[in-house]
């Protein structure tokens, strides 16, 4: 462990923002791993509400279940149930507005991962340039015969590049994975929302005619 810390310390000042990037990326990945669990978003009890709403007598119980299970899906279903008196187009627009807010919550933090995946290699490149500048400065002062001094600048250049890529690659993978997962969950919420919208429209007075 000490050898690793010593090696990273040789990377120079650029290792500080790279370290902060790694901590931020890890924090977002952990948060997304918890927040984007399917069972946490597509709550089975709320899905059961959609399947069992068959008439006006079921609305109160359905709303109570949605209030018990907080989350984007439950919030949209509850909104639809509480505004079931609206005509189809007004209710649809209301659900779309709520859906946009919930999508934003689901995708929160993904921009941080995308940014880190982009800037980590650039920070590594900056560290490379600074390391090479140190090498050239040593050469201009001492000549090319000082191998130990040159090795320090070269190692700094290589270490920052390696660390920058080491952070960027898994961060980019995590970003793509959680972006796809969030989109998949959003599509599933939309599917159930449309199903509920159709059911509520059918239950409105005069719908049979």
Describe the model.
The chain has 9 helices and no strands. It is mainly alpha-helical and 209 residues long. The protein has one domain. The radius of gyration is 27 Å and the shape is rod-shaped.
Low-confidence stretches: none
Count of distinct strands: 0
The percentage helix is: over 70%
- Helix-strand topology string: HHHHHHHHH
Oligomerization status of the protein chains: single chain
- Rg over CA atoms: 27 Å
Beta-strand content bin: under 5%
Distance between the termini: 76 Å
Going by helix content, strand content and strand pairing, the class is mainly alpha
Which helices and strands occur, and which strands form pairs?
Elements lengths: L1 H8 L5 H21 L2 H4 L2 H9 L6 H10 L3 H11 L5 H19 L3 H33 L4 H57 L6
Task: Give a short summary of the structure.
The chain is an all-alpha fold and 209 residues long.
Question: What attributes characterize this protein structure?
Answer:
82% helix; 0% strand
């Amino acid at each position: 462990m000490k050898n690793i810390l010593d090696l990273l310390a040789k990377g120079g000042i650029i290792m500080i923002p790279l370290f902060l990037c790694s901590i931020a990326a890890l924090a977002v990945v952990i948060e997304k791993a918890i927040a984007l669990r399917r069972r946490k978003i597509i709550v089975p009890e709320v899905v059961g509400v959609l399947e069992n709403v068959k008439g006006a007598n079921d609305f109160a119980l359905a709303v109570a279940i949605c209030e018990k299970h907080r989350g984007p899906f439950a919030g949209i279903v509850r909104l639809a149930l509480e505004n079931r008196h609206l005509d189809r187009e007004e209710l649809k627009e209301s659900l779309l507005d709520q859906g946009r807010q919930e999508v934003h919550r689901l995708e929160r933090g993904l921009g941080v991962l995308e940014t880190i995946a982009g800037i980590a290699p650039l920070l590594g490149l900056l560290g490379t340039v600074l390391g090479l500048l140190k090498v050239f400065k040593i050469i201009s002062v001492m000549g090319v015969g000082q191998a130990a001094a040159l090795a320090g600048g070269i190692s700094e250049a290589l270490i920052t590049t390696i660390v920058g890529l080491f952070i960027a690659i898994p961060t980019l993978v995590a970003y793509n994975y959680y972006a796809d997962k969030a989109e998949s969950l959003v599509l599933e919420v939309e599917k159930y929302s449309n199903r509920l919208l159709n059911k509520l429209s059918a239950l409105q007075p005069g719908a049979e005619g």
